[in-house]
Amino acid sequence: MTIGVCCFENTNDPESGWASVEGQEAEWVNGIGDLNDQVLWVTNLPFLTHRKLNLASKGNIFDTQYFRTAIDNIGSEMGIQSDLKTLSEFCSREFKIVADMGEKYLDISLVNPGYRYHKTASYQLLPDYVRQQPSGINSADIIEAMNHSTQANQAISGLKRPAGAQPVGLLFPRHVYGKWLLSLPMPGENKWKVVKQRENSTKFGVEGGKALRNTASVLERLNEIGEKNALFLRVSVHSMDKFYQNFASFSAGEKYIRRWATLPEVLELARIAKISINGGYMCKLSESPIVSDGIFGQSDMSFARGLLIENVISALASPVSNQNGSRQTMLSAYLRAYDRIACGRAAAKLASEGFVVGSYSMGRIVVFMRPGEGRRLA
């Protein structure tokens, strides 16, 4: 598939811009009509503009987040956001490399490109046991557990944006971060057992800066069970350390009140909150790699390889669809939990240094920075 990028001067009214095919020198175009129908075009148009113009009907023109990271964010990362000609050339070259590596290592084909690259990749990468819907008398409860345990974005509650501050995305290195995430233990089957609960659930964690009396014994037991099992636990958060309330509040960013969390998130919550567990479900962990090591080139830390790895993680964290709509999976819950823990700790460090954190997800922490504040990060 031939891949091009078109960066329009006005993303609300795409009348003119620069278009490049696979890294070749960009050419000036006077609107959508000038784009070759035989090329898969990724534009810098936001989703709402793309939908308003009904560009999905063309089948070969996509919005700015087709390869997940928006083109303007890529421009900011590379310091070329204001040079649309160079930006279109850079992105078209890198996106082509992403597509070629995806086909070479993971058999991801763009013959039918789909809505987003990571969604197309998910059809190829998600194991069969992940696609299977839980069955049995507890199936509805287990599905709710997976849905509640998957939180795609950690929003900040009660955020007061500083006057004159602009959002800046801070990223973990994609290659290293992705390799770490995909090396962690994940749920490895779709066979579930009930985690028995005691008649009176024990409160554990921290309160007033001090560990509660039963915390050590509860954590020891949880870690013991979690050595071989993936756990989804029904959890109640009774209080949280004041420092963490704004940027690590349990369920902040969700459309509903969460009642479930994976074991990794429960262990993290116990560091900053007073919580209790009221039963849950478990399945066996998998120690085998989820995807081929081919995507982790020993000497290749290129932008394109990092972007491919980011899309692979997003693919594995994607929900699955059926006749009743879509549902989250055990894999998405664990991947999102690991990611939220890592980003949350980075957010805590930034907050302790006086930065205002906006949100975080998938290795990216958004910080609101005032002019000149960026120098403090060095």
Average pLDDT rating: 90
| Annotation, overall tally of beta strands | 18
Bin the strand percentage: 15-25%
Q: Give, in order, the helices and strands.
A: EEEEHEHHHHHEEHEEEEHEHEHEHEEHEE
Radius of gyration: 22 Å
Textual characterization of the structure:
The chain is built from 12 helices and 18 strands. With 378 residues, the protein is of the alpha+beta class. The strands form 4 sheets. Strands 8, 9, 10, 11, 12, 13 and 14 form a 7-stranded antiparallel beta sheet that branches. Strands 3-2-1-4-5 form a 5-stranded mixed beta sheet. Helix 6 packs parallel to helix 12. The longest helix is centred in the first third of the chain and has 23 residues, at 84-106. It is globular. The model has no long low-confidence stretch (mean pLDDT 90).
Label this structure with key terms:
alpha+beta, five-stranded mixed beta sheet, 12 helices
Task: Present the secondary structure layout.
Layout: E1 3-8, E2 17-21, E3 27-29, E4 40-43, H1 47-52, E5 61-62, H2 71-78, H3 84-106, H4 117-125, H5 128-131, H6 139-149, E6 154-155, E7 166-171, H7 174-181, E8 186-187, E9 193-195, E10 203-207, E11 210-211, H8 215-226, E12 229-240, H9 245-248, E13 260-262, H10 263-272, E14 273-286, H11 303-316, E15 320-322, E16 325-327, H12 330-352, E17 356-361, E18 364-369
Parallel strand pairs: 1-4, 4-5
Antiparallel strand pairs: 1-2, 2-3, 6-17, 7-18, 8-14, 9-14, 10-11, 10-14, 12-13, 12-14, 15-16, 17-18
Short structural summary:
By secondary structure, the protein is α+β, with helices and mostly antiparallel strands. 35% of the residues lie in helices and 23% in strands.
